[in-house]
Amino acid sequence: MQTSAKNKVKSGVTRYSDWMSELPPALHDIPLFNLAIPGSHDSMSYDLDISSPIAEPESLKRFSWVCCVPCLLLKWGATQEETIIKQLDAGVRYFDLRVARKPDDANPTRLYFYHGLYTRTDVESILKVINDWAERHPKEVIILALSHFLGFDENPKELHNHLVNFIKNLFGTKVVQREVTPTLRSCWDQGTNVIISYDYKGEYPPHLWSKIRYYYGNSMDCTEIESKLSQTLKIRNHLSSNGFFVCGLNLTLPENIWILKYILRPCDNFVSAVRSSLPKLLSWLEQQTSEKPNIVASDLATNEDFISTVIQLNDTA
Fold this sequence. Notes:
By secondary structure, this protein is of the alpha/beta class.
């Protein structure tokens, strides 16, 4: 995403690949819980493999052999168009990563991401890419939200231990410990810039944070999404809740028969639906100056003015 003059935020950010380091000093000491941070929803869905088995929904797995079914899942499951690196360079700092083990994989601990279909690239390869980027941009704090863990039921202890240990060894001293209330300055002073949220019920080692609450409208209708998120923001601010939370601008397909209204449109797909709705959702977001969100996640996070709009909310901090 290229930055145009009209999109430069008042705080002086000109390079979205390093926008956190360019924020004014007044924002360096506030908790990251109070900073507006752009995120991507289903961050790895650009990498879905049309030849993979169907991961979800369960009701469609028995139709994997029907060639049009994987095609429909790809058309309506790909919520992002750009790679993780391009998302990071564009300014995305929160990543929604849904982890799974493919059935019948010869490697007992090899993991993938998924959204309807499994990804082509495995989890370890992507985490290494993120780690390399974090090393090149030490002042940019990245939040990785790992969740779902589809297919872990048969051997949960081995798979979770493998993934947790891999994360610890890979990111090492860059990991922000969960006992602290992180600010940009505290992360910079300690040489940390990776926060790992791990959505699994169990004991958490110090390098893992618990689930980050994700609020979303659960609808394909922009007005309904805006209404639900507005209510959520008011409640959050009234309770003065501490900790990270995500305000999801993403559209959500129905889980009942009404899904056919969308997926059977021959010349339509999820990307086009998002492109038509995103300007309206961003217009609503620009108005959230008093009930300010924390992390804001979106489909097609590198498109339109999403990232600049989120970052600009920090002008009211």
